[in-house]
Write a structure and sequence with these properties.
Elements: E1 39-43, H1 48-59, E2 63-68, H2 72-84, E3 89-93, H3 99-113, E4 118-121, H4 137-158, E5 167-171, H5 175-178, H6 184-204, E6 210-216, H7 230-234, H8 248-259, E7 270-273
Helix pairs in contact: 1-2, 1-8, 3-4, 4-6
Length: about 280
């Protein structure tokens, strides 16, 4: 099966508006009110998986707080999509690697909507490291600040305001389980997210707060052309058993299951949406 056209973006986490073709974020089915009255914070919610989850949550009745770094065009498009579903969105731009910023997100979410029911930690960055010995400490630190410190900062910002039946959903990755020779520091952070999720699930189970994760495989998001050279983008996902990269709207239903009552007997778990890549033979 064909891959994507060769392309590259020179900035992280990338822009959905610049991709060819655009990722598919449209939900598959009409909503059924599974998140009616809920408020969800989604980091990296402006594009890719985050956009697809945001639109699906809105269709199911949730109000959204969309956290993004600086991709205002993508964020405004996501707001319009949420409003088209009959819901509301608060857009907040900033760096999740900054603890003060994350605290402000929690505070503004409560001021705007009066409650927080769901936190989806999804913002991420990744970089191809061809020469591991040459990787600078600051480069590695930046990936950890975004991918794992940012998760922890957001959890700290909301945890005291979550009630029983609240949900925390973290975005892990197939690379946490299989590794990746060129994305070593990224894989390290995703492994840490697995440990974080399982630890928090055990810690907060008695309070009725459920903590799970989704572990995507190759999904067509802005992070792909922003990370890999054009030839790798062209073949991205074609080596999976299903022969193609996944679309964001093929991942979003896993987040919905974990966010709504369908997932009320799950905590500390991972849902793998990866075209059959994991486990490897």
């Amino acid at each position: 099966m064909p891959g994507q056209p060769a392309q590259h973006q020179s900035h992280q986490p990338g822009s959905e508006a610049e991709m060819t073709p655009r990722p598919d974020y449209t939900p598959f089915y009409p909503g059924s009110g599974r998140l009616e009255g809920k408020v969800a914070i989604i980091t990296g919610g402006d594009s890719g998986i985050g956009r697809a989850v945001s639109v699906l949550f809105a269709r199911e009745g949730a109000k959204l707080v969309i956290v993004y770094k600086e991709e205002t065009e993508d964020a405004e498009k996501t707001r319009a999509l949420i409003e088209a579903e009959g819901s509301e969105a608060l857009l907040i731009a900033g760096d999740v690697g900054d603890r003060d910023f994350c605290e402000s997100v929690g505070r503004r979410a409560r001021q705007q909507f009066g409650r927080i029911d769901i936190l989806v930690n999804n913002a991420a960055e990744q970089h191809v490291r061809d020469d591991l010995a040459a990787m600078e400490t600051e480069e590695m630190r930046q990936v950890f600040e975004t991918n794992i410190f940012g998760y922890m900062y957001m959890i700290q910002a909301v945890i005291d305001h979550l009630e029983a039946r609240a949900r925390i959903i973290n975005t892990a990755s197939i690379v946490a389980y299989r590794g990746n020779p060129q994305l070593v520091d990224y894989a390290m952070t995703k492994g840490a997210i697995v440990a974080l999720t399982r630890s928090l699930a055990a810690r907060y189970a008695e309070k009725g707060i459920l903590v799970n994760m989704v572990a995507p495989g190759p999904i067509w998001t802005p992070l792909i052309p922003a990370s890999f050279p054009p030839d790798k983008v062209k073949s991205f996902g074609t080596d999976t058993p299903l022969g193609r990269a996944g679309q964001p709207n093929e991942v979003a239903p896993a987040y919905l299951m974990l966010a709504c009552e369908d997932g009320r007997y799950m905590t500390g778990q991972a849902i793998h949406v990866d075209g059959g890549e994991y486990p490897s033979s």
